[in-house]
Design a protein that fits this description.
- The chain has a 4-stranded mixed beta sheet with strand order 1-4-5-8. Strands 2-3-7-6 form a 4-stranded antiparallel beta sheet, with no helix packed on it.
- It is globular, with a radius of gyration of 21 Å.
- It starts with 8 loop residues before the first helix and ends with a helix.
- It is of the alpha+beta class and 384 residues long.
- 51% of the residues are buried.
- The longest helix is centred in the middle third of the chain and has 37 residues.
- It has 3 domains: 109 residues, Acyl-CoA dehydrogenase/oxidase, N-terminal domain (Butyryl-Coa Dehydrogenase, subunit A, domain 1, Orthogonal Bundle); 111 residues, Butyryl-CoA Dehydrogenase, subunit A, domain 2 (Beta Barrel); 149 residues, Up-down Bundle (Butyryl-CoA Dehydrogenase, subunit A, domain 3).
- Helix 1 runs antiparallel to helix 2 and helix 6 packs antiparallel against helix 9.
- The structure holds acetoacetyl-coenzyme A (CAA).
- The site of acetoacetyl-coenzyme A has 26 residues, from helix 4, strand 3, helix 6 and helix 10.
């Protein structure tokens, strides 16, 4: 994957191609998506037309077959232009990963081509009102009834809910035994009994709808079970091992967007008779921002390589990359706002949006406190 520890020509070419699409057709919609809290359909259409909406889907299912590093680069570049839009490739990967990791050949064949073609997106339903960090405390139930399962419960904080056609839903099939009693299912938006709550009113990523998903006696064929009964929690965690890398990539992209805008500004803005870029205090801030961003990107790409290979230390690297890159993105976007002074605090520049968008990367796919739990457990087990 790495040629002498540098990106391969293919990876560099993918970055150039996705950057071109994003500069022309995604960035122009970013402010409006934030302002109106509407899903940026034009960005989706542009990503779909260039096959960047779900690049990770293997070629055998009609996908672009991007490896984990290429997928991270796509998400990074989309996030550099519009964080909300970067959740299109990111959540398509999150939603489909349980099927890719644990689904039957038949389930893969049924759903993955639809995501690859852009016919529908795929969301991931793990969290509930009373089960966030403690995901295994979920109460959504799935009860077997002949050749069907009947699902009842409420899933909360579901990214792209309502827009997505397909949902991986984790539910308890055997109560009282914790994580081992959880199973995973594919639920379709059109299944009778599926409905959605009002869109959450959020600080950032406003162009990506976050809603509750209600499951009211949703009766689905038993072949929608992903993997064996009782393996759902492990599938959920294995999925997050891979997709925390994509959140790290999203954070890197948001931070790069903010650094780019700050660099442009400090060269133009003059105070005390010279560009503010000439002041050492400003230069030290830029250097710290660049240093944090570079370190975050390197860790993210190292984690992506492990995700592609399925290495035993992926759990650690996925958590470390997500935690480090999201903390870096928060610091870098905050400093970028500072460098623009009063202008950074207004909607005349994209920095305040980027700062608000960065915040979620410290929270979702496991808070950074959970990432530290995950890392510490791996260290104590001697995996690292
Ligand atoms: N790979 C495979 N199996 C795993 C695993 C992994 N990475 N992590 C845990 N498991 C297995 C364990 O092996 C264990 O089985 P055994 O007993 O057989 O060993 C079982 O799952 C239970 O594991 P734990 O005892 O470690 O579980 P826990 O209850 O202590 O939870 C936790 C650990 C790390 C805190 C976990 O609950 C967690 O990650 N919480 C955060 C949840 C989260 O990330 N939510 C994000 C929602 S998705 C979202 O935000 C997306 C969005 O829309 C954008």
């Amino acid at each position: 994957m790495f040629a002498l520890y540098q990106l391969s020509e293919e990876h560099v070419a993918i970055r150039e191609a996705v950057r071109e699409v994003c500069n022309a057709k995604v960035a122009p919609n970013a402010a409006a998506a934030d302002e109106t809290s509407e899903f940026p359909q034009a960005s989706y259409d542009a990503l779909r037309a260039s096959d960047f909406h779900a690049p990770h889907i293997p070629e055998e299912y009609g996908g672009a077959g991007a490896d984990a590093l290429a997928t991270a680069i796509v998400i990074e570049e989309v996030a550099r232009a519009c964080a909300s839009s970067s959740l299109i490739p990111a959540v398509n990967k999150l939603g489909t990963m349980p099927v890719l990791l644990s689904g039957s050949a038949e389930l893969k064949q049924r759903y993955l081509p639809k995501v690859a073609s852009g016919e529908g997106m795929f969301s991931y339903c793990l969290s509930e009102p009373e089960a966030g960090s403690d995901a295994a405390a979920m109460t959504t139930r799935a009860v077997r009834d002949d050749n069907h399962y009947v699902l009842n419960g409420v899933k909360r904080w579901i990214t792209n809910a309502g827009v997505s056609e397909y949902y991986t839903v984790f539910a308890v099939t055997e109560p009282g035994i914790g994580a081992k009693g959880i199973s995973a299912f594919v639920v379709e938006k059109s299944d009778p009994g599926v409905s959605f709550g009002a869109p959450e009113k959020k600080l950032g990523i406003k162009g990506s709808p976050t809603r509750e998903v209600y499951l009211d006696n949703v009766r689905i064929p038993a072949d929608r079970l992903i993997g064996e009964p009782g393996t759902g929690f492990a599938t959920a965690m294995r999925t997050l091992d891979h997709t925390r890398v994509t959140i790290a990539a999203q954070a890197v992209g948001i931070a790069q967007g903010a650094l780019d805008a700050a660099l442009d500004y400090v060269k133009e803005r003059r105070q005390f008779g010279k560009p503010i870029a000439d002041f050492q205090g400003v230069q030290f801030m830029l250097a710290d921002m660049g240093m944090k961003l570079t370190a975050a990107r390197e860790l993210t790409y190292a984690a992506a390589a492990r995700s592609e290979r399925g290495d035993a230390d992926l759990t650690y690297f996925g958590a470390a990359a997500k935690c480090f890159a999201s903390d870096a993105a928060m610091a870098i976007t905050t400093d970028a706002v500072q460098l623009l002074g009063g202008y950074g605090y207004t909607k005349d520049f994209p920095l305040e949006r980027m700062m608000r968008d960065a915040k979620i990367t410290q929270i979702y796919e496991g808070t950074n406190q959970v990432q530290r739990i995950v890392m510490a457990r791996q260290l104590l087990k001697g995996v690292i």
